[in-house]
Amino acid sequence: MKTVAKNLAKLYGESFGGKMSGRYRIPTKLVADLSGRRRLFEDDIHELSRALYEEGFILVDMETFFVVLSAKTFTNYRRANADVIDGACDENKPKGALN
Questions:
Q1: Residue 1: how many CB atoms within 10 A of its CB?
Q2: Backbone angles phi, psi at 35, to 5 degrees
Q3: Which parts of the chain have pLDDT scores under 50?
Q4: How far is Cα 79 from Cα 3, in angstroms, rounded to an integer?
Q5: How much is the pTM?
Q6: 56 CB burial (10 A radius; 0-12, 13-18, 19+)
Q7: Class of domain 2-74
Q8: Rounded Cα gap, residues 31 and 67, in angstroms
């Protein structure tokens, strides 16, 4: 799966689909073909996900396709902590429940 991960990571920088580079989706069947397998099992997907993470990318399993994103995408996201969660809760709802 390391070779498949390297190839998927390389695709991130390639121009296709009307964009110069960036996130993309790829059919599960195509990923299975790239890995030389008829189907991908949970442990295959986990192994691929870990290998892609080592390359700096995140693999999102959407059942019929995968999304490949840069791990850097998430570094500047807002952080929700316990105070934010508690502040978003209504007094009548259990602690930890959101609107």
A1: 21
A2: -90, 0
A3: none
A4: 34
A5: 0.77
A6: exposed
A7: mainly alpha
A8: 11
